[in-house]
Specification:
Layout: E1 3-14, E2 17-28, E3 32-36, H1 43-50, E4 58-63, E5 66-68, H2 73-79, E6 81-84, H3 96-100, E7 107-110, E8 114-117, H4 119-132, H5 149-162, E9 167-171, H6 179-194, E10 198-202, H7 206-212, E11 215-220, E12 223-229, H8 235-242, E13 248-249, E14 252-253
Parallel strand pairs: 3-10, 3-11, 6-9, 9-10
Antiparallel strand pairs: 1-2, 1-4, 4-5, 7-8, 11-12, 13-14
Helix pairs in contact: 5-6
Amino acid sequence: MSELLEARGIRKHFGAVEALRGMDLTVREGEVVAVVGDNGAGKSTLIKVISGVHQPDGGEILFDGRPVRFQSPREARGAGIETIYQDLALANHLNVGANIFLGREMMTRWLGLIPVIDAKRINRETARLLNRIESRIPDPRAAVMNLSGGQRQAVAIARAMYWKMKLVIMDEPTAALAVPEARNVLRLVKTLKDEGIGVIYIDHNLLLALEAADSVVVMNRGRKVHETRASETDQEELIRYMTGRSEVGRGGTK
């Protein structure tokens, strides 16, 4: 797998607070990297720097092998980075298809002259896409406000897949979801991985993060303090690094 994203020595200050202190992160094509850490570790700041919400005060970001410095989330999205936050940024009053194609609607011409939205084609493409990801949304014409949390996640992921995003950042995707829906999100993460899309996965539920990820990066006070394959660690070890007690092993001091 080739390297898709490289964040090197990223620094970010907010006044006297140093939120990121030389943070490094690498994501490869088709790789799921879980980023974990306690509140205040810098996870949210990191993904906002990568996605163009914040400008870094130091360090560099390479995306697809080229140095980048996104000035806005729109610019990052144009380069192939989609960020799915907890609130999902979906238009609740619109249906599933309208959300997937929002701002990039398929058009046709009425009477061959007047441009209008091609609702039939949008519905057809939406149904095909939902079937491709094995979504449990029965009707693509349903308003997003009437969907469950897991179904809303599926809409956001379907949008990223349709528009051929290269990197998807998922911020607490299982928050407030029931267990069956949380497990469905993990299945969707695997779908992204199988499509060759890189994923940065942030979740306070360490067991779900370990199940979703190929590798895990632990942050503490704005820095990367540990990185490992998900298959070679466990929740207990991650907590020790998250809390700064990594020198204490299961049986005493290492």
